[in-house]
Amino acid sequence: MTVGSNNQNISFFASSDYNETYIYRTDGFCADSISSRACVTFRGGAYDASASSTDKSIGNRKDGDGFKADWVEDTLSFGSNTSLSSFGFGVPQQVLPQGFYTSQSQLGLGRNSTFLRALASAGDIGTKAYSIFWGLVGGPADKQTRGSLVLGGLDKSLIGDQNANFTAPLFYGSRCSTGMLVTINDILLNWPNGTDMSIFMGSQSAAIQACINPGGTPPDGKSEGRSFGINFYTMLFDPDNVYYGGLTINLLNSISVKIPNTELVVPDTYIASDGAVQTNTSVRNVVINSLQAENDKDLPVLGRLFLSSAYVMVNQEAGSFSVWQANTGSKTSEIVAVDKENNMVSEFCANSTGPTPLPTSSITPSPQNEESKLSGGAIGGIVVGVVGGLAILGATGFFLYRRRGSGSATTHVSQESELHTADVKPPTYSMMQTGPQELPVNRYNVLELDGRAVDGSGN
Per-residue pLDDT averaged across 366-378, rounded? Predict the structure, then answer.
């Protein structure tokens, strides 16, 4: 997205936790050992209020997420021609929680999201709903795909099988802050020879609950064989002596989500002192962290690894969420809108002065339980956001994690438009045959991101 009158490019994490949106300023709160250029990449950009003529301080405001920030209003632009002219957001006074794992600015999509409320009030979306697919980011360049964030609806082309989905009420009564609580009844190792092996060893009483969270983080601790790069604190292995199969997660009485080896086992990526993302192919990260020792009572989390192969939609006004196996071969978007009853609808935003909806089409409703119905009809919709570029720091797909720790970081992404979508090509990394390393030490020289605005013309 771009922020301010001078269109400052900022790359966000789509956060299901936060109700407010947070954008790091130029200082970035990075450690002294991280160069200024690496810090800008790590943080996803650097907001300079003094460079924007539309910046306005709104003083102290009650913080809804548990940490302090300076509150400002400025223009937030995204999609082909969508903008919020006086959108209020927080500029953090310190590094946000889990700063090494969810390092970028945060686009708050939580249950009381001010961003979704602002879009609904402006008539840009008809319902406070969103859907997210992280994209395939871990394998060779020709196997990588764009991610997707649709506001107010979903992209039907990303659904593997419309008749096979898991739909349930959002539940905030547990430690699952996103409300997306699921039960896993089996996890299978998918060997290349076509055989599967359950890690539950056939036990029928081994079901576990987990929380779907796009920004999951692992336990905080110290151990040898850990990465200190972008996939922070994942286990490192020799590339010739590491698991070479896939992973399937079965949700109780419902769908299975199969994750390929190229997302599960990835090279070690890190940010160099010049801000470039580098790849070390001499080692491999397995992007799963276990719950053990002081973390063994924590709620497991299905994070970005899960969303590389699952497509998730949240409809806050219907109070429900849905999960499908993602169609990772999708090439052409098929955007649909949803209403407050979780139905796909023909009128997306009838009173809107915002962007023109994409062409309509008709669909066949999916058979589901009455309490979790997602029915069909003539449809229209709009994509006003994107996530593929978040994948520069999103190759980390933590499955199990403990919510703790702090750190710092940013991202440098190029963006281009397709129809009404503002999406980002998967990052291209340089290949370096080096040993694992931390972010290099360098002096601070502020480097801004690519100044191109995200717009419908592709400029």
Answer: 35
- The residue assigned the tokens 């995200």 is 454
CA angle 237, 242, 243 (to 5 degrees): 140
Cα 196 → chain centroid: 29
Residue 26 lies in a domain: no
Q: Which helix (H) or strand (E) holds 182?
A: strand 181-190
| Cα 388 to Cα 13: distance, rounded to the nearest angstrom | 10
Cα-flanking dihedrals φ and ψ of residue 218, to 5°?
A: -90, 180
> Residue 86 domain-assigned?
no
Q: What CA–CA distance (Å, rounded) separates 450 from 166?
A: 40
User: How many residues does the structure list for the chain?
Assistant: 459
Vertex 422 angle, CA 417 and 426, to 5°: 85
Tell me, what CATH number does 320's domain have?
2.40.70.10
Domain count, the chain: 1
- pLDDT tens track for 149-165: 999 999 999 999 988 99
Note whether 148 and 135 are within 8 A (CB): yes
| The one-letter amino acid at 92 | P
Pair of tokens at residue 76: 């937030």
Number of neighbouring beta carbons within 10 Å of residue 107: 30
In a domain? residue 297? yes
Does the residue 4 lie in any domain?
no
Residue 131 CA, chain-centre distance (Å), reads 10
Contact 83, 391 (CB under 8 A): no
CB 307 within 8 A of CB 296: no
> 73-87, 225-239, 360-374: which has the highest mean pLDDT?
73-87
Torsion angle defined by CA atoms of residues 387, 304, 63 and 354, in that order, rounded to the nearest 10 degrees:
20
Separation CA 367–CA 165 (nearest Å): 10
Cβ 96 vs Cβ 67: under 8 Å: yes
* Identity of the amino acid at 237: F
Backbone angles phi, psi at 154, to 5 degrees: -150, 170
Which residues, listed in sequence order, are joined to residue 226 by a DSSP beta bridge?
235
- How far is Cα 428 from Cα 432, in angstroms, rounded to an integer? 13
pLDDT in tens, 333-365: 989 899 998 887 766 554 444 333 333 322 233
Domain that holds residue 271: 124-406+414-440
Q: Contact, 236 vs 283, CB < 8 A?
A: yes
| Bridge partners (DSSP) listed for residue 344 | 338
